[in-house]
Write a structure and sequence with these properties.
By secondary structure, this protein is α/β, with parallel strands linked by helices. It has four domains: 2-125, Methylthiotransferase, N-terminal domain (Rossmann fold), CATH 3.40.50.12160; 131-260, Transcription Regulator spoIIAA; 273-278 and 290-380, Transcription Regulator spoIIAA, CATH 3.30.750.200; 385-439, OB fold (Dihydrolipoamide Acetyltransferase, E2P) (Beta Barrel). It is 35% helix and 22% strand. The chain has helices spanning 12-26, 51-70, 81-86, 88-93, 109-119, 168-171, 180-192, 219-227, 247-255, 272-277, 284-297, 316-329, 356-381, and strands at 2-8, 30-32, 41-46, 75-80, 99-101, 123-125, 150-154, 156-157, 176-177, 197-201, 234-238, 262-264, 302-309, 333-338, 385-393, 401-404, 410-414, 423-432, 435-439. The strands form five sheets. The protein has a six-stranded parallel beta sheet with strand order 2-1-3-4-5-6, with helices on both faces. A five-stranded mixed beta barrel has the order 15-16-17-19-18. Helix 12 runs parallel beside helix 13 (356-381). The termini are far apart. The structure holds 5'-deoxyadenosine and iron/sulfur cluster. Residues 49-50, 165-166, 266, 268, 306, 308, 337, 339-340, 342 line the site of 5'-deoxyadenosine (5AD).
């Protein structure tokens, strides 16, 4: 049996792509190993969203080079967004690589490996698939691993938004949705293998159904469709764009019990001028109104977000607007980043006007504010009962299991007779960061 070592950088989409490659390779006789030294094939699924992600990839490959030198039969592949973006340049920089692939070649991973074996020549395989439809064919037979209680389902790929700072439209191409019937079938399959929670995945899930389907279908209809599948106990989706987030989707939160009370809605900045320069195509007032409407329908909904500080032209007062929207919304958690200029994006043409030191200080400030907001909300859970879908064993000393509540807080649980996949009501005793520590009452 041949062994593959897989490493993933970046977003959930990349994690899903890695899982898919594992599955395709499983059907070609590969089993996943957690030890690089034991591998016949090493794949690194890369990210290019920020410069830091790229640097991490290069330093990882620096560590893999000696393995390849010691064992020329080892196949070394670089896949994902950095592959799509830099192609040949990567082979020049790392001549010990066997191949470079983009995100649209995931399905062809076994072919790529065969090609290296038969030709012994390195190659680049990138570009976007030319098919009109986006389909992820089901593979017959066993699964390499159980999907677990919480499973991701890719509903749309690519992004047509072209925010000026973002490489995704260039690395993942145009939006294309998967047919609802194919999605329902996949979800039924996951449920039959133990999944209880389904997380619909895409760079902009709210744009689902606009392109690539035989018949266009709005995102909220998909939510209602998934809710009818027996055995789906919880439904989530990520990531959303405020401009495509509709009233009907707000109504779905109200109507569908399984649609849990959490929304990840990236704001990026609290300042209208910056939002315009980012080409987010909405104002901060529109964003605020949207959330006000959602909160009036679903009062206990938790909102999380993505924020960039130090975008070109962000003044002190523009930055203060970001602090303001964070306070107003009271995010439960945030992914926070310093702006990183990306080659080929429109914002890269603007002068990177905010000094690195200022970016760092602003980042520290929003991280500190977010900690306070998270702390305040965490405190309000103490002594209360929360419903947790148990996902697996906890690594925190004194706790046995871990899971999430509907609002997507991590929860550690003390309790002996529990098992993964079960939904239990537990009582919160303490809180640390975005994690609640609870005991079975
Ligand atoms: N610099 C910093 N952060 C970025 N993001 C995307 N591109 C950049 C960039 N060039 C962040 C955005 C996005 C998240 C996935 O990554 O906040 O929502
Ligand atoms: Fe990037 Fe904007 Fe698309 Fe999100 S919506 S993937 S930030 S271009």
């Amino acid at each position: 049996m041949k062994q593959v070592y897989l490493d993933t950088f970046g977003c959930q989409m990349n994690v899903a792509d890695t899982d898919r490659m594992e599955l395709v390779l499983f059907h070609s006789g590969y089993r996943r190993t957690l030890e690089k030294e034991d591998a016949d094939l090493i794949l690194v699924n890369t990210c290019s969203i920020r410069e830091k992600a790229e640097q991490k990839t290069f330093s990882l490959f620096g560590g893999l080079k000696p393995l390849k030198m010691a064992n020329p039969d080892l196949i070394l592949g670089l896949t994902g967004c950095l592959g799509q973006q830099d192609g040949e340049k990567l082979l020049k920089r790392m001549p010990y690589l066997d191949f470079v692939m983009g995100p649209d070649q995931v399905e062809g991973i076994a072919q790529a490996v065969d090609r290296v074996r038969t030709t012994s020549k390195s190659f680049v395989w990138t570009g976007f698939d030319q098919e009109k439809v986006y389909s992820i064919p089901e593979l017959p037979g066993d699964l390499p691993k159980s999907p677990g209680p919480s499973a991701f389902v890719n509903i749309i790929k690519g992004c047509d938004k072209f925010c000026t700072f973002c490489v995704v439209p260039f690395t993942r191409g145009r939006e294309k949705s998967r047919e609802p019937e194919e999605l329902y079938e996949e979800i039924r399959h996951l449920v039959s293998h133990g999944a209880k929670e389904i997380i619909l995945l895409g760079q902009n899930v709210n744009s689902y159904g606009k392109r690539g389907l035989k018949k266009p279908m709005p995102f909220h209809e998909l939510l209602y469709g998934v809710a009818e599948i027996p055995g789906v106990q919880r439904l989530r989706f990520t990531t959303s764009h405020p401009n495509d987030f509709t009233r009907e989707t707000i109504r779905a939160y109200r109507d569908l019990d399984i649609l849990v009370n959490h929304l990840h809605l990236p704001v990026q900045s609290g300042n209208n001028q910056v939002l315009r320069a980012m080409r987010r195509d909405h104002t901060i007032e529109e964003y605020r109104d949207l959330l006000a409407e959602l909160k009036s329908e679903v009062p206990d909904i938790a909102i999380s977000t993505d924020i960039i500080v130090g975008f070109p032209g962000e003044t002190d007062s523009a930055f203060a607007d970001t602090l303001k929207i964070m306070q107003e919304v009271g995010y439960s958690s945030s992914f926070m980043f310093a702006y990183s200029p990306r080659p080929g994006t429109p914002a890269n043409e603007l002068p990177d006007s905010v000094p690195e030191e200022t970016k760092k200080q602003r980042l520290q400030k929003i991280i500190a504010l977010q900690s306070q907001l998270t702390e305040q909300q965490g405190q309000s859970y103490i002594g209360k009962n929360v419903e947790v879908l148990i996902e697996g064993r906890s690594s925190k000393p004194g706790y046995t299991f871990k899971g999430r509540n509907p609002q997507y807080w991590n929860v550690n649980i003390q309790g002996d007779t529990l098992q993964a996949g079960e939904t239990v009501t537990v009582q919160v005793e303490t809180v640390s960061g975005h994690t609640l520590n609870a005991t079975t009452p």
